[in-house]
Design brief:
Layout: E1 6-11, E2 18-23, E3 26-31, E4 37-38, E5 48-49, E6 51-60, E7 74-76, E8 81-84, E9 95-97, E10 104-106, E11 116-120, E12 136-139, E13 151-153, H1 155-161, E14 170-173, H2 186-196
Parallel strand pairs: 1-14, 4-5, 6-7, 12-13
Antiparallel strand pairs: 1-2, 2-3, 3-13, 6-11, 6-14, 8-9, 8-10, 11-12
Length: 202
C-alpha cells in the first residue's frame, strides 16, 4: 500500500485533541476524541481507536450540501437514520431505522456535524464485545472541540478529502503524539548502519 492510500492521523500532544490528517503530500487540521487516542478503546470512553482501518461508506445531507464526485459508496441521510451504539443489540455498530428500541445516535442532526460522514471500518467485521461504535470522519465544530471518538474536519477540508479517498484507502491513527517523536541521535544512526549492513558489501 502506498503512502497515497493511507490517511494518517496524529495528535499534536498527549494533552490535546488537535492533530493533523495527512494523505500523500496533503494535510488538514483535525480533532479527535475527548478521551484521546487509545489502543484499548471501549464503548463510551470518547476515545479514538489507534490502528489501521478501512473506510466503508459516505452519508451526507443532500438538503445542506452538494456531494462532489466520490469513489466510496454514498447515499443521503434521511430523518429516520440512526446508528446503534448498544452492545446488547444485534444491530450494534450498524445503521438502523428510528424510532428504535436500542440505544442509538441520530444521524439527522441539527448541529451540522453529520452533514458529511465517512464510516470507518472499526469493530464492524463483525462488531464484537463493547469495543466501541460509530467511528466516523465528520464535520468539526468551529472551535475544533474534541469529539466522542471520531475524527472531525472543517467543512471545506472534508469536502476535499472525500474526493481523494476510495475503497483502497486506509485510516491510520497513530498512538504517539507528534511532540513525542524524538529526533534521531548519533547512536540511532550507528544502529541503522548495522541494520543496513550487507555482507555482500565486503
Amino acid at each position: 500500500m502506498s503512502e497515497a492510500d493511507v490517511l494518517t492521523v496524529q495528535i499534536d500532544t498527549g494533552e490535546s485533541a488537535l492533530g493533523w490528517a495527512m494523505l500523500g503530500d496533503r494535510r488538514w487540521r483535525c480533532t479527535v476524541g475527548a478521551g484521546g487516542v487509545r489502543e484499548d478503546k471501549v464503548e463510551g470512553d470518547a476515545a479514538t481507536p489507534v490502528g489501521t482501518f478501512p473506510l466503508r461508506h459516505i452519508y451526507f445531507r443532500n438538503d445542506r450540501l452538494v456531494l462532489p464526485k466520490v469513489r466510496l459508496p454514498a447515499r443521503p441521510i434521511d430523518e429516520h437514520d440512526g446508528w446503534c451504539d448498544d452492545p446488547r443489540s444485534p444491530a450494534y455498530n450498524r445503521l438502523v431505522r428510528t424510532p428504535n428500541e436500542w440505544s442509538h445516535e441520530r444521524m439527522w442532526r441539527d448541529d451540522g456535524l453529520y452533514d458529511l460522514v465517512v464510516v470507518v471500518g472499526y469493530n464492524d467485521d463483525p462488531p464484537e464485545g463493547e469495543w466501541g461504535s460509530a467511528i466516523f470522519l465528520h464535520l468539526a465544530r468551529a472551535d475544533y472541540a474534541p469529539t466522542r471518538g471520531c475524527v472531525a474536519f472543517a467543512r471545506d477540508d472534508l469536502l476535499e478529502l472525500v474526493t481523494l479517498i476510495g475503497p483502497e484507502t486506509r485510516l491510520q491513527v497513530l498512538s504517539l503524539p507528534a511532540d513525542q517523536e524524538k529526533a534521531p541521535t548519533a547512536d540511532d544512526e550507528v544502529m541503522q548502519q548495522f541494520e543496513d549492513f550487507d555482507e555482500s558489501d565486503w
